[in-house]
Amino acid sequence: MQRVGYLGPKGTFTKMAVDALFDQGSFVSFDSIPACLDAVERGEIDTGVVPLENAIEGSVHLTIDYLIHQVDQSVIAELTVPIRQHLLVHPDYNGEELTHIYSHSHAIAQCHQYLYKNYPNAELEYTASTGRAAEVVIEKGVHVAAIGNHLAAEENGLNILTPNIHDYDNNHTRFAVVQKTQRKLEVKDHPIATQKTTVMVTLPKDFVGALHQVLAAFAWRKMNLSKIESRPMKTGLGNYFFLIDVDQPYDDVLFPGVKAELEALGCTLKLLGTYPSYQLDIPSPVCQ
Amino acid sequence: MQRVGYLGPKGTFTKMAVDALFDQGSFVSFDSIPACLDAVERGEIDTGVVPLENAIEGSVHLTIDYLIHQVDQSVIAELTVPIRQHLLVHPDYNGEELTHIYSHSHAIAQCHQYLYKNYPNAELEYTASTGRAAEVVIEKGVHVAAIGNHLAAEENGLNILTPNIHDYDNNHTRFAVVQKTQRKLEVKDHPIATQKTTVMVTLPKDFVGALHQVLAAFAWRKMNLSKIESRPMKTGLGNYFFLIDVDQPYDDVLFPGVKAELEALGCTLKLLGTYPSYQLDIPSPVCQ
């Protein structure tokens, strides 16, 4: 049986991604991204699921930097999950004044305008995750609320007082599924949105137009890039590498051609993974 | 007197940036990035200081997205601060066992390997900021520690038990200084590392090689780019804009030329700021 680790506790957005991807397996919750990736590295779990972009719980840079610098793992799938934040209350709640609202700092910030308009007097209290915030409501009672997703409500027996209180629609988080030794990934039946390949490119030095030359190697082959991000190399300010998402699977002609061309320019190219990209569609919950 | 707001409380890395930049003024602490930027927007403060990249407290994406979508402000300076995390203990600490270690989740993650090796049995507890973690040590006593910077130690009367416990050297955070109505910025005497200009470029649609064409407009003018990042447009998946840092001040020839060329391609270019980039050098503290 596959052993899947994730950034927990129960009721986080990462757990939503795990539930959407996996039917069977043993599931292990970790309290930080490095702890989860270390467990994959040591072989304690087969598969790790961690936030990769626009995350609620945990820093995105942390995931990328840990994958680049600390472990030797491949991204074998990604899942995009829409971020819908709801105001969650105790099952006994009956219109009492809400004095405190709990959540992860990013979730509170994402609902900043809603809270400012509707609960200007409530104290905002920070927790390690949106899942943890939901647990606190059960402990504290009817005068407090949590901000979290519908899974956090279900897992803790809370009611959704107001759904969709986030300030932006169309906010999504990308989750990476990683493995050390590539095994077959048994996931639920999802339509595959696209096949992607992620590579890391380092430049020999900070020279004018270097990135332009790198992109030319992709552009003249008509390889479409869906994301590009520069990140510091950790060897001092001003030294960057580039993470590039290419909208096609790895192949034995185009990618090796790009690699050879870049190496001739003094660059390096490392493959971080070629993988299916899934999308999760969550129906909006009805107000209770 | 200038009114400066920042992501607080006292003892955060943002407050370190404020202390490094400003001699005089009235200083106001905010508990979230949106709250700070909203106060600038409403004119309650003249200047805001918020984390922009590789932040400890608060999400970087949150700052960028709020500047792009919610407010109309300019970046008028940036300051780069080295991130040095220390293990902070109560002034009465005398070798007692540390049962709990408090900090912001990002700071705990940044010291993950140190904690794993040295304090495998301590409970890790999360706070809204590294500054708040230091306050908790005063409240809880000698059996707990905090992870934070030297300012958090000073402000709260804590001792540094072990300095520099972060897993990576050369980790830095960039802070943005923003204003709504551009006023003269009276900062302390710092050597200016470089002059930068940040622009936002949107593409007409996700066409092959679009970014390559955009970069060509900079490359043939020999304008060096120090950072490029794609971000979702919030109008649905797959629509991206690009944030580009150019290593030179805005001028009336090159930048308008780039703008005109990009507009001819169906792109838009918006100036987010042209500003001095300062660097803060912090001497490493001695173990107490």
UniProtKB/TrEMBL annotation, chains A, B:
One biological process term in Gene Ontology: L-phenylalanine biosynthetic process
InterPro entries: ACT-like_dom_sf, ACT_dom, Chor_mutase/pphenate_deHydtase, Preph_deHydtase, Preph_deHydtase_CS
Keyword Amino-acid biosynthesis in record: yes
ACT domain boundaries: 199-276
Protein keywords: Amino-acid biosynthesis, Aromatic amino acid biosynthesis, Lyase, Phenylalanine biosynthesis
A GO CC annotation given for this chain: cytoplasm
Gene3D superfamilies, A to Z: 3.30.70.260, Periplasmic binding protein-like II (3.40.190.10)
Pathway involvement of the protein, from the record: Amino-acid biosynthesis; L-phenylalanine biosynthesis; phenylpyruvate from prephenate: step 1/1
GO MF: prephenate dehydratase activity
Entry annotated with the keyword Repeat: no
One Pfam family recorded for the sequence: PDT
PANTHER family: PREPHENATE DEHYDRATASE P PROTEIN, PREPHENATE DEHYDRATASE-RELATED
Protein name: Prephenate dehydratase
The species this protein was found in: Halobacillus andaensis
UniProt gene name: pheA
